[in-house]
Amino acid sequence: GFPVVLINGVVSKWWEFVRPTALNSAGYTWFPDYSWDSEPMICGWGATKTGNQTGTAKIEAGSVIGFRAFAASYKPGYVPVREFDPAMDGIGHLGPGQAYMSKAPGAIEDYEGDGDWFKIGTSGASDGMHWDSDRQPEMNFTIPASTPPGLYLVRVEHFNISPYFNQTQMFVNCAQVEVTGSGDGTPGPTVKLPGYDPADPGIWLPQAMYNPYKPSDLLKAYKGPGPDIWTG
């Protein structure tokens, strides 16, 4: 899971700006989600309704936001707050990641993510052979410089990618931010969430792109599910 954000490199506390997630149906924290068309796909289990437990980070348009990964526990219950441990934490699953934003129509703590979402970045396989996020402590994305000021959810997702149907695992969290600056862009294209198709080739990875033994142009050109990236 991604309970910690970094704003221009400054590390937050656990759940300081990330909405806390509930236990899944089996009673575990951060276990993978296959709910492509249901509520947990938006911000994680139960996290569309935990905005009042979370602060809101200020970030200037054009700045970098990072989401730091912590390992799940194989014991039922909530994972206890702890310091980052490079020996066990970080992104341990092979696969891509993406980030989206959605502007709240009113109070951010009441917003359930049922509005329009636009994509701001994808972490793919830039060398055509290895996933860029592999063994990294976090994934970083730039808030487009022309993003209009306001209150937003920033949603991160990471896939433990698979070439077998409906076996790709998804890990999702949402941070609450207030974007500052004088941006006057029009984000888009936009989508509603949930809304992924498990047969999308960005989720159900074609066998030719899975674990190549040499650089693959197909993998280098990986396009995640969802809309095109808005760069501002």
UniProtKB/TrEMBL annotation:
Catalyses which reaction(s): [(1->4)-beta-D-glucosyl]n+m + reduced acceptor + O2 = 4-dehydro-beta-D-glucosyl-[(1->4)-beta-D-glucosyl]n-1 + [(1->4)-beta-D-glucosyl]m + acceptor + H2O
Domain Auxiliary Activity family 9 catalytic: 5-205
Keywords: Carbohydrate metabolism, Cellulose degradation, Copper, Disulfide bond, Metal-binding, Monooxygenase, Oxidoreductase, Polysaccharide degradation, Secreted, Signal
Matches recorded under InterPro entries: AA9, AA9_LPMO
Pfam family, one: AA9
EC number: 1.14.99.56
Enzyme class label: oxidoreductase
Cellular location(s): Secreted
CC terms in the record's Gene Ontology section: extracellular region
Family assignment from sequence similarity: Belongs to the polysaccharide monooxygenase AA9 family.
Name this polypeptide is given: lytic cellulose monooxygenase (C4-dehydrogenating)
